[in-house]
Design brief:
The structure is a single chain. By secondary structure, the chain is mainly α. It has one domain. The protein is about 75% helix and about 0% strand. It is built from 12 helices and no strands. α4 (about 95-100) runs antiparallel to α11, α6 packs antiparallel against α7 and α6 runs antiparallel to α12 (about 275-290). It comes from Thauera humireducens.
Length: about 290
C-alpha cells in the first residue's frame, strides 16, 4: 500500500466527491417519476447485483460463516432506515440543503465513538471540527424554520436523522465483528437487507412506485445505480486497497460543496448566503476533524 496520494488518487477522489454530491440532484430528478422509497429500493437491488459481480471478479468470498450475521443484519436495517429518510426528506427540502445536513454524519460518528469506541479517543481538532459543523447546522436549520417555504424544515430534519442512522451504521461496523471482514461483504449486508426492506416499506406506505416514467427519470435512476453504486463504489474499494483511508477521508469535505453547487446548477435552487455560510462551516469542520494528528 502506498503511504501518500499520487495525482491519480487525488483525481479519482475529486471525481467521486463530485459523483456523491450530484447524487442528491439525481434523487430529486428521479422522484418526479418514481416514489422515493421505491426508488431507494430499486437502487439497492441493482447495487447488490453490481457489488456481487465485483466480488466474483475479485474472488472475494462473501458467503463464509464468520459470526457476522447478526451485526450485518443490524447494519443493513440501519442502512435501510437511513436511505428511506434521505429519499423522503429530499421531497421536502432542496438538494443543496440536504447534502449539508447529510454530511454531518462523521460528527455523529465521532460523538458516538466517545462511548462505543474508547480505543479511538477524540482529539481537540475533532471537537473543534464538530463545533464548526454544529454551528453550520444550527444556522441552516434555523433558516428552514423561519423560511416561507412551508415544510422545508421537515425535510431538513428527516435528512439530519438519516445522517444519524448513517453514523449508527458506521459505529455498528466499527464496534462489532464486521470490522474484521472485507469491505465488500460489509457493503453487501447493507445493500442486501435494504434491497428486501425498502420495497416492502414502499408497499406499506402505499407508494405508487413508477408513476411517471420519462427519459430524464430513467437517466437519473441509471446514474444512481451505475455511476454511484457501480463505478464510484468499486473505485472506492480500489482506492482503499492501495492508499491510506485516513488520507482519502480528507476529501470528504468536497462532497457537500459539490452537492450545493450541483443543486444550484442543475435544479436552479436558490443558494442564499445562509446556505453558503453553513456549507463553509460544515466543510471546514470536516477538514479540521480529518487533519492528521
Amino acid at each position: 500500500m502506498k503511504t501518500e496520494l499520487d495525482r491519480m488518487a487525488i483525481g479519482l477522489m475529486i471525481l467521486f466527491c463530485m459523483i456523491w454530491g450530484v447524487q442528491q440532484v439525481a434523487i430529486k430528478l428521479a422522484s418526479t417519476g418514481i416514489s422515493p422509497v421505491w426508488q431507494a429500493g430499486l437502487r439497492s437491488i441493482v447495487a447488490t447485483v453490481i457489488v456481487l459481480g465485483w466480488t466474483f471478479v475479485r474472488r472475494v468470498n462473501v458467503f463464509q460463516r464468520d459470526g457476522t450475521l447478526l451485526p450485518g443484519l443490524l447494519a443493513g436495517l440501519l442502512f435501510a432506515a437511513e436511505f428511506a429518510l434521505i429519499f423522503i426528506g429530499l421531497q421536502h427540502t432542496s438538494a443543496s440543503r440536504g447534502v449539508i445536513f447529510l454530511y454531518t454524519a462523521p460528527f455523529f460518528v465521532a460523538l458516538g465513538a466517545v462511548w462505543l469506541l474508547p480505543q479511538e479517543p477524540m482529539r481537540r481538532a475533532q471537537w473543534a471540527g464538530m463545533a464548526l459543523a454544529f454551528a453550520g447546522v444550527l444556522i441552516l436549520f434555523g433558516e428552514g424554520l423561519i423560511s416561507s417555504a412551508g415544510g422545508e424544515w421537515v425535510g431538513d430534519l428527516l435528512i439530519l436523522i438519516g445522517a444519524g442512522f448513517w453514523a449508527a451504521t458506521t459505529l455498528t461496523v466499527k464496534a462489532t465483528a464486521l470490522i474484521r471482514i472485507s469491505a465488500e461483504k460489509t457493503l453487501l449486508y447493507q445493500l442486501g437487507v435494504s434491497a428486501l426492506v425498502l420495497p416492502l416499506l414502499s408497499l406499506i406506505l402505499g407508494e405508487p412506485g413508477v408513476f411517471a416514467p420519462s427519459p430524464l427519470v430513467w437517466a437519473s435512476m441509471l446514474f444512481q445505480v451505475v455511476i454511484v453504486a457501480g463505478v464510484s463504489y468499486v473505485g472506492w474499494f480500489w482506492l482503499v486497497r492501495h492508499y491510506p483511508a485516513t488520507r482519502l477521508s480528507t476529501f470528504s469535505f468536497l462532497t457537500p460543496v459539490m452537492g450545493v453547487l450541483a443543486g444550484g446548477l442543475f435544479l436552479g435552487e436558490e443558494l442564499s448566503q445562509t446556505v453558503f455560510l453553513a456549507l463553509g462551516l460544515v466543510g471546514a469542520g470536516i477538514w479540521v476533524a480529518n487533519r492528521p494528528g
